[in-house]
Specification:
The chain is mostly helical. It contains 17 helices and no strands. The protein starts with a helix and ends with a helix. About 60% of the residues are buried.
């Protein structure tokens, strides 16, 4: 993707911002064992930090998209990262689960703003024919977070405690805010969506169907993904180093999958990419019960890693490509779909874990991924001329 140097710098800064945002969102799954032990609560209880945060991000993405519509994106995105830094510091100082929960909910206002607004901003920095690649490029930050941020956060949490992991994210957020401020041009203000435009988004069967696919994907993944660390510790005796290695493996293939999608999505088509990447996740969930050792589990995780972040970036590119003028609203709602999926998945997984039904986690996830694939196919067929 050829673009002037200032645009390249801005897109790299947005990618780095998504890296920090993604690392902060995933730090709780990565340090769930440490949070549980430190605060003397059950793992299933600690997992509700994921559900509560996802619920805030779900509601916050569209509501805040409307609230910040007129803001210059350089100022908005930099301030959002500083908010993220400040509240991670506060969270690291909380003495109990009851105190940590509301602080965590305030912290994740930042992801509700940053990721959808960064995607919409990226689409305005490049020519129309390059929007798909620009959006998926910026979303690579989440993949890098999974390959570097998540395992490093888990390693810090395992050896120095979850509080130090939170403090590390705060420091990274400050650096990323400076990067955004220094590279993004002034005056990027996507047109504010009118009430009529929001109505068009909400009443569009295609756009809302795509958001529903995203939500189903989120539930299907997070019913198991939320409790990945505790499951590996209980079932395979994995320690902090082993968990970090498994997170890194998962993230490496996540990065690879997103890079491939970013390169080929404009050629293959976003709808087909969504189907392919969702199918990869479903394959891992289907094979999960067959993994009897950590080595086999590592193999099983490969398709999931390839599809996990790639399918989210494909969905965002799909929405931007279908209705560029409505992208600030549709991408925000798609982020809500991601986060409501996380909230419901973590809650459902926590219920299964608390009721000694862990063997059902992968089965439920697999069924939901099949449902997402079916809905995605139906959406594409509905758009074809008769």
């Amino acid at each position: 993707m050829s673009r002037p140097a200032p645009q390249r710098g801005a897109l790299w800064a947005l990618l780095a911002g998504n890296f920090v945002i993604g690392t902060g969102v995933m730090v709780v799954p990565g340090t769930l064992n440490e949070i549980s032990a430190s605060l003397a609560i059950k793992v299933a209880t600690a997992g509700q930090l994921i559900s509560a945060a996802a619920f805030v991000m779900c509601l916050g993405a569209p509501l805040l998209a409307a609230a910040v519509a007129g803001w210059d994106r350089r100022k908005l995105l930099a301030l959002t990262l500083l908010w993220y830094a400040a509240w991670h510091v506060v969270a690291a100082l909380m003495p109990s689960f009851g105190a940590l929960l509301p602080v965590r909910m305030l912290t994740v206002i930042a992801p509700a703003i940053f990721t959808p607004q960064a995607a919409a901003c990226a689409g305005m920095l490049v020519p129309p024919e390059q929007r798909g690649r620009a959006v998926t490029f910026v979303f690579l930050g989440w993949s890098v977070a999974s390959v570097l941020g998540l395992p490093i956060g888990a390693l810090i949490g395992g050896h120095l405690g979850w509080r130090m992991a939170f403090m590390a994210i705060a420091a990274l957020s400050v650096v990323s805010a400076a990067s955004v401020w220094l590279t993004l041009p002034n005056g990027i203000r996507p047109a504010a969506l009118t009430a009529a435009a929001w109505s068009r988004v909400l009443r569009s069967p295609v756009l809302m169907g795509i958001v529903s696919v995203t939500a189903l994907q989120g539930v299907g993944q997070f019913v198991l993904f939320s409790y990945f660390g505790p499951l590996l510790k209980q079932g395979f005796g994995a320690d902090a180093n082993t968990l970090s290695l498994m997170w890194a493996l998962f993230g490496a293939f996540g990065l690879l999958g997103n890079m491939v999608v970013s390169r080929y999505i404009d050629r293959v088509g976003a709808g087909r990419m969504v189907l392919l990447t969702t199918g990869l996740i479903a394959l891992s969930l289907l094979l999960w019960p067959l993994a009897s050792t950590l080595a086999w589990l590592a193999v099983v995780l490969v398709p999931w890693g390839l599809g996990c972040f790639a399918t989210n970036s494909s969905q965002q590119a799909r929405l931007v490509g279908l209705a560029p003028a409505l992208a600030p609203g549709s991408v925000a709602l798609n982020s809500s779909g991601i986060y409501i999926g996380q909230a419901l998945g973590a809650a459902l997984g926590g219920w299964l874990l608390a009721n000694d039904a862990t063997e059902w986690m992968s089965r439920v996830g697999f069924a939901l991924m099949l449902l997402a694939m079916g809905l995605s196919i139906a959406i594409d067929r509905s758009r074809r001329p008769a």
